[in-house]
# Entry
Amino acid sequence: MPPRQLNATAASLLGFLHDGPLTGWDLVAVAQQRIGNFWTLTQSQVYRELTAMAAAGLVTVGEPERRDRKPYSITDAGRAAFAEWIEREPGREQIRFPLLLTVVFAGHLPPGRLDEILAAHRGAHAARLADYRRVRPELVAALERTPSDALRHELATLEFGLRYESAVMDWFETLPGLLRPKA
Amino acid sequence: MPPRQLNATAASLLGFLHDGPLTGWDLVAVAQQRIGNFWTLTQSQVYRELTAMAAAGLVTVGEPERRDRKPYSITDAGRAAFAEWIEREPGREQIRFPLLLTVVFAGHLPPGRLDEILAAHRGAHAARLADYRRVRPELVAALERTPSDALRHELATLEFGLRYESAVMDWFETLPGLLRPKA
DNA sequence: CATATCATGTAAGAGGTTACATGATTAC
DNA sequence: GTAATCATGTAACCTCTTACATGATATG
# Structure
């Protein structure tokens, strides 16, 4: 099959394969860790894209190892497809934030329910922010030990996550004042 | 057909229909304006969900008016389905930010290209932030004139947008320092 | 009367989610 | 030897996007 235009999920898998062969399982883990905070993907997708890319000649499957692990390697065609993809102007971000729908339509909620929901989500965001704050110094230290563009780029995305979650927390803090009629 | 679990897009349309009948065209406009900043949807989807909801008895279609405008009204079954939907715990937000993929894989980009891309996106975000800042005082004024929960909820989502875009701009400003090796 | 915009809709395919099925290996 | 977890994959379905087709009405 002529390699149709690569989608961002598949392209990211190719991106990770530049550093060496990985199995589907490994790719799921790597992708979750490296781009999972701003690019949703599922295990199911990864296996499907790998199968499709193998059929298109963008990757090759190696011999099964222990536990049926099948290492995928990027091919020259894969590298070419990736290079073409990354050159493209990235589209704008897509956000789908169900909690904000709940806020918009909160008038249809029994009193107190919105506060409950907000409290739960606030907790989840606080945890994510705390996690980013825990990880940052490690990354900064690693970068000082062995400076590299790859680490700098990873730190750059972490910095986005930090600012994003901080903004969300800030929003949660202003909400009570906004939602209650002034005295 | 038994009305299967409502999806958030369809539910939002029902939400807007609580305030009175609207045509598909109007719903597209209302949705873009009221939730478009944190819930992507297309015209195509709106017409499809309306057709499906009409078949499920959640809305009724009125007589075509001028230009074939067909007003949709919410039914009691629709109100019940909506009430059930809004009671549910909203899922976590989904973000898909292609620009961050570009940053992660920027090592595969020719020198200078990343800066170009970043500059373009930064401009777009600056424009959105400026727009939020333009709208806010209007909303605040409207709220002071005629206080209402609906307006407060709308302001709450705008405040999220403001904080989000501010965080993004802040990130853009720290990027140059992060990406270049220190002197 | 030509052009822009309003307004509806379909078709086709890509992308994504959820749930399940299957078997290997490791750890207790 | 049984439970956990590693590892692959399929099936079914839903959702989303893109592009196109069609015709009405308003505006100059």
In short: Chain B has seven helices and four strands. Chain B touches chain A through 64 residues (CB under 8 Å).
